[in-house]
């Protein structure tokens, strides 16, 4: 199996086109009072909600490379989004495009969040001046790529008008996985500084973040148990399909940096914490969100990170974090969605 030193991995990533957007490295912080309530010696949070651009989040790291690719191709329009009106991805696609001088065209799926006044992520996306195109398809977000054909039609329309569009169907993409290896590099250095060799690393992700953290751990030779927590209920075949899809994407990401992919489908450990529905938090998740706020002033959102932390809390309480491993929660952002949930608590 190929292993790289941190400088070797960093050098490989620097060879890819990149446009600077993120405030990094993001901090690794202690959650001492939450750890006390959960009766564990230590609990850490990697603050990728603090990447800076337009309220931050994990997508900023990925968009450095997506935007870099767009600029390298001479594009002048960035077509992205594809999610619900409260999409963090849509917000950050619009912000990254604006920062790079590209015009953002953002696709959003119709649903309850498309009605009424703009709040949360949708408000920020509109403030950024993005041209929003609405797609009346798959509002429950069962299919990440349901908007692909619609995006292709938009690209053809833009090309006919003399524009040069860059189309990003989803952040679940080999280049996004490669970009997020920077988080794995930072986390490795920060855990080394604390003298921590064994960790259980958990993120709200059944996609690029999980694949990147697992790939990074293997490439750097780190002893990390990596678990991805879903923010939407698994479809019937997700438990079998997703690991194979992510293995293929991780292999493509490894190829981008010139190494052979070391992962298999059996390496992926995905947790279904998506109930009752995408965008809707359970009472247990709201309890965990409140617990994190009142113990260590850590704010989570009900769509993504609240569900991820609920998964980690459950793992700790049921003994799924082995003795000797330090739990690390990767906070991937999403806080604007918290302000679109009026009346839910």
UniProtKB/TrEMBL annotation:
Gene3D superfamilies: 3.40.50.1100. Signal peptide: none annotated. Residues 22-333 form the Tryptophan synthase beta chain-like PALP domain. Keywords: Pyridoxal phosphate. InterPro entries: ACCD_DCysDesulf (IPR027278), TrpB-like_PALP (IPR001926), TrpB-like_PALP_sf (IPR036052). Its cofactor is pyridoxal 5'-phosphate. The keyword Membrane does not apply. Pfam families: PALP. It comes from the Bacteria. Belongs to the ACC deaminase/D-cysteine desulfhydrase family. This is Pyridoxal-phosphate dependent enzyme. It comes from Tenggerimyces flavus.
């Amino acid at each position: 199996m190929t292993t790289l030193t941190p400088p070797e991995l960093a050098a490989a990533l620097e060879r890819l086109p990149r446009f600077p957007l993120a405030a990094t490295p993001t901090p690794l912080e202690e959650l001492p009072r939450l750890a006390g309530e959960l009766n564990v010696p230590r609990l850490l949070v990697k603050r990728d909600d603090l990447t800076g651009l337009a309220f931050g989040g994990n997508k900023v790291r990925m968009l450095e490379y997506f935007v870099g690719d767009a600029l390298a191709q001479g594009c002048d329009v960035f077509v992205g989004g594809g999610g619900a009106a409260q999409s963090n991805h849509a917000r950050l696609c619009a912000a990254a495009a604006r920062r790079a001088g590209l015009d953002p065209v953002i696709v959003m799926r119709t649903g309850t969040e498309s009605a009424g006044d703009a709040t949360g992520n949708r408000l920020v996306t509109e403030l950024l001046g993005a041209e929003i195109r609405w797609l009346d398809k798959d509002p429950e977000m069962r299919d990440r790529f349901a908007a692909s054909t619609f995006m292709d039609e938009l690209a053809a329309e833009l090309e006919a008008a003399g524009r040069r569009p860059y189309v990003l169907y989803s952040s679940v993409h080999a280049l996004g996985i490669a970009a997020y290896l920077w988080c794995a590099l930072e986390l490795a250095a920060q855990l080394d500084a604390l003298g921590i060799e064994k960790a259980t690393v958990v993120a709200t992700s059944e996609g690029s973040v999980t694949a990147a953290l697992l790939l990074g751990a293997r490439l750097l030779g780190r002893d990390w148990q990596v678990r991805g927590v879903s923010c939407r209920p698994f479809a019937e075949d997700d438990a079998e399909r997703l690991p194979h899809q992510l293995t293929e994407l991780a292999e493509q990401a490894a190829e981008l940096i010139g190494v052979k992919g070391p992962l298999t489908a059996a390496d992926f450990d995905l947790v279904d914490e998506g109930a009752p529905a995408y965008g809707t938090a359970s009472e247990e998740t709201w309890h965990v969100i409140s617990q994190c706020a009142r113990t260590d002033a850590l704010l989570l959102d009900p769509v993504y990170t609240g569900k991820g932390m609920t998964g980690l809390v459950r793992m700790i309480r049921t003994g799924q974090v082995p003795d000797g491993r330090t739990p690390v929660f990767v906070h991937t952002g999403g806080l604007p969605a918290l302000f679109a949930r009026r009346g839910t608590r």
